[in-house]
Amino acid sequence: MNSFYNPVAIYFGQESVQACAEQVRKQGSLFSRVLILTRGGGVDRNELLAPLIDALEGKHTRVLEVTLNNPDIVDIYKLLQSVGDFDYQMIIAIGGGSVMDAAKALSALQHAQIHSPADVREYITNEMYANKPSLAPWIGIPTTSGTGSEVTCWATVWDEERGCKYSVSDKRLFADAALILPELTVTMPLRLSVATALDAMCHATEAYWSVHSNPISRAYALQAIERIREALPQLKENPNDLDSREKLSLGSVLAGLAFSNTKTTACHSISYPLTLLHGIDHGIAASLSLAVVLKHNYATLIEPDKLLRAFGAEDADGVQRFLKSVYAAYGLSDSLKAYGVAEQDIETIVAHAYTKGRMDNNPAAITPEELNLMLASLL
Ligand SMILES: [Fe+2]
Question: What's the CATH class of domain 188-377?
Answer without folding.
Answer: mainly alpha
